Predict the 3D structure of the following.
Amino acid sequence: MNWGKSIVLAFVIFIGFIMYIVIRSAQESVDLVSEDYYNEELKYQDVIDAEINTLPFKDSIRIEQIAQTIEMEFPDEIIVDAEGEIYFFRPNDIKLDKKILLQTDVNGLQIIGADQFIPGMYVVKVNWNKNGKTYFYQQNIFL
C-alpha cells in the first residue's frame, strides 16, 4: 500500500468517526430542568422566602428510605392542616420525575412506596402552605 492510499484511508476513517459522533450526539436527549424556567426564575425570591420560613424547623424535618418506603416526617406546627406537594426531581431523566400530593397524618408523617421509583438519585422538593405562609424544603435522596 502506498502513501496516497494510506492518506485517503485515514481521511475516510476520520470522517466516519466524526459522522458516528454527530449521530450519537443527535440521539442524546438534553432535558431542561424546567420548560418554564424563565418564569420560575422571576418567582425565585418566593422560594428563598419559603426556605427562610422553613429554616427554624430544618433539623426537625426527616426524609429517608426505610425498607421499601420513603418516610417523610415534619414538625406538627408547620404541617398539620397544610396543603402542598412533593416533587421528586430526577436530574438525568425528566420522564422519571414524580409529583405527589402532600398528605401527612396527625403526627406529621407521610409514607410513600419506594417501589414506584426507579433506583437512583432524586432531589426531593417539598413545598406547602399553611395559614397563608409558604414553606419549602429540599433534600437529595438515593433510592
